[in-house]
Amino acid sequence: MNQLTLHVYNITGSLITVKCNNTITIKDLKEIIAERIGDNCKHYYFSLIYNNVELDDNIVCNTILKDNSKLFYMMRLNIEREILLEIKQKMVLNSNWNRNIELSQWNCINIHDNNSKFKVKNLNLSNLNLTGKIPTEIGQFVNLNYLFLFNNHLTGKIPTEIGQLVNLNYLYLSDNNLTGKIPTEIGQLVNLNYLSLSDNKLTGKIPTEIGQLVNLNELNLFNNKLIEKIPTEIGQLVNLNTLSLFNNQLTGKIPTEIGQLVNLKFLYLDNNQLIGKIPTEIGQLVKLYYLNLKKNKLTGKIPTKIEQLILK
Hints:
3 helices; Leucine-rich repeat, LRR (right-handed beta-alpha superhelix); 3 domains; single chain; 22 strands; alpha/beta
C-alpha cells in the first residue's frame, strides 16, 4: 500500500494537508476532508478540483493523483440540493433530480416560498418500488412538513435522525419491510398530526415517548410485531381520533388512561394478547364510532358504560 500526501486548498487559500492510502476513492478522500473541515460537513457539500477538473466520486485516487498533488475544494451553493442528490443515489431513485434543473421543478418535492437555507417542505417517495434503507440524510430537512415513503420495499431500521424533523406534520412509512424498534426520537416530533408505521416488521415495545406527540390526530402501528404493554402515556394524546394497534403481539391490560382520549372515534386493539377486564373508562369516549377488541384474552363482562355507549 502506498501513501499519498495531498495539499487541499479552499478559495481563500486555507490549506488542509491529507495523508491517505492511494487506493481509496475520491468519495473516501472527500469524507476525510469533510471531517477536517468540521461543522458537520459532508462529502457531498463540496466539489474537489484537480487541474481545473471536478473529480468524480468513484475515481480511485492512484489513477489520477500523485504524491504532493495540489487540489482545491469548493463548497456547493445549494446544500439541500446536494442532500437530495445523495438520497437519489442511495435509493436508486428514478427521477429528474439533477443540478441543471431548478429545485422547484424537481419531481416528488414541494418547496417553501421563502429565503430559508432549507426550502423542501414535502417529500413524497411513496409507491416507487424503492429498496434498501431509509437514508439518514433525510434528517437534515429541518423544514419538512410531509414525509411519505409508504408502499415501497424499504428495509432496515427507522433512522434515529428522523427525530430531527421537528416541523413534520405527516410521517407515513407504512407498507414496507422495516425492522427493529420504533426509535424513541420520534417523540421529538411534537408537531406531528399523522403517524403511520403500519404493515412493517417492527419489533419491541411502543416507546413511552409517543405520549409527547400531543398534536397527533391519527396513530397507526397495526400489522407489526410489537410486544409488551400499551404504554399509559398514550392517554396524553388527547387530540387523537384514530388509534390502530391491531395485529401485533401486545400483552398486559388495556390501560385505563385510554379513557382520556375524549376525541377518539376509532379504536382498534384486536388480534393481540391483551388480558384482564375491559376498562370501564372506555365508556368516557363519547365520540367513539368504532371499537374492536376481538381476538384477545380479555375476561369479565362488557362494562355497562360501554353498552350504553354503543346504544348511542
